[in-house]
Amino acid sequence: MRERRPSAAWVALGAIVVAVACCSSLSPRPQRLTLGIVDVPATGLVHVAKHSGFFQQAGLNVRFVSFTQEADALDALLDGRVDLATTFATPFAARALAGDTPRVLTTIHQSSRNTRIVVPKGRGIVGPEDLRGRRVGVPRGTNAEFFLDTLAARAGLDAPGDLREVDVRPQDAAAALRRREVDAVAVWYPWALCGHPPLESMECTELFADGYTEYSILVTRDEVIAARRDGLERFLRALSRAEALVVKWPDAAIPALRAELPDHGGAHLVEAWHRVTPQLGLDNLLLAVLDRESDWIEQRMNVPVRPVDFRALLYPDLLLEIEPTAVTLLGY
């Protein structure tokens, strides 16, 4: 009997199957990174990247650890409990002044209307000047405290006793207002939305500070950069894809936010998202804000602090590879 030989086409197909099988068996496992994050729409780019599968597609397995305040996420980074953290400019500046050296990879958002003063109507406060002598709740050591002092200074309320600041955790702000322990609060979303939890049934006035710019930033440590540089680059590429998506279709973020932040309700997420500008970047405005906040911290502490070169704490190399136009620092 004549031996049947496989055709050339079948031989080629078999070779392809074997090659694919070999490559699949040798494909690297997803790189693991742990992220400390405050679950708010201001850091929505991270949630969009997760919900859209961009981290997974970048070959990453990202574990999320949630915190109520950005300072806690930053502490977890510096303690080595997480590889990356989202935080705001104020706690970052404070830790840098204390001698710590977290490294900024990029901004995540900027806004001038996310943090604000919330005042229930009927308490005789319609403008910043009406806060004189009033008790204002504010989470100490946060961007809200810097915001409050910026607003007070511009309203001429910078003399001792002009404001009676009360340390209030953001999650306790609504209860403090209801119990009239404070007359107003300086706070950010989700604790600053009247008519929605946790301030449902309250009709409020909002006050903003001219000249105040808020940043959230993505930070890491030098040893993580040294050991996991490729993973950090993949993380930023996933964020860049999320940014491109929401720049083209801003409301594409809403399903992601609703899915990733289920405790924040629904409809008011749209308003909260529209109050911020999602933005990757490293620029001179960020440096100016950090310098202003460090001056403010030094004045609040009333003691000399070690000067900090915030520019040296930025790490633009990865962002330059991914979005070179997002780095607008002088000298780069």
Strand order of the largest sheet: 2-1-3-10-4-11
Along the chain, the helix and strand elements come as HEHHEHEHEEEHEHEEEHHHEHH
Measured on Cα atoms, how large is the radius of gyration?
24 Å
- Outline the biggest β-sheet: 6 strands, mixed
Fraction of residues in H or I helices: 40-55%
Low-confidence stretches are 1-27
Number of helices: 12
Please provide the count of β strands. 11
Cα shape: globular
- What percentage of the residues does DSSP assign to strands (E)? 15-25%
* Amino- and carboxy-terminal Cα gap: 76 Å
Please identify the structural class as seen in this structure. Answer: alpha/beta
Describe the structure.
It is built from twelve helices and eleven strands. It is globular and about 60 Å long. The strands form two sheets. Strands 2-1-3-10-4-11 form a six-stranded mixed beta sheet, with helices on both faces. A five-stranded mixed beta sheet has the order 7-6-8-5-9. Residues 1-27 have low confidence and may be disordered. With 332 residues, it is of the alpha/beta class. Helix 2 packs across helix 8 (222-248) and helix 2 packs across helix 9 (253-260). It has helices at residues 8-26, 44-51, 54-57, 70-78, 89-97, 143-154, 173-178, 222-248, 253-260, 268-274, 284-301, 317-322, and strands at residues 31-38, 60-67, 84-88, 103-111, 115-120, 135-138, 164-167, 184-188, 204-207, 214-220, 277-278. The protein is 40% helix and 19% strand.
Secondary structure layout plus pairing:
Layout: H1 8-26, E1 31-38, H2 44-51, H3 54-57, E2 60-67, H4 70-78, E3 84-88, H5 89-97, E4 103-111, E5 115-120, E6 135-138, H6 143-154, E7 164-167, H7 173-178, E8 184-188, E9 204-207, E10 214-220, H8 222-248, H9 253-260, H10 268-274, E11 277-278, H11 284-301, H12 317-322
Parallel strand pairs: 1-2, 1-3, 6-7, 6-8
Antiparallel strand pairs: 3-10, 4-10, 4-11, 5-8, 5-9
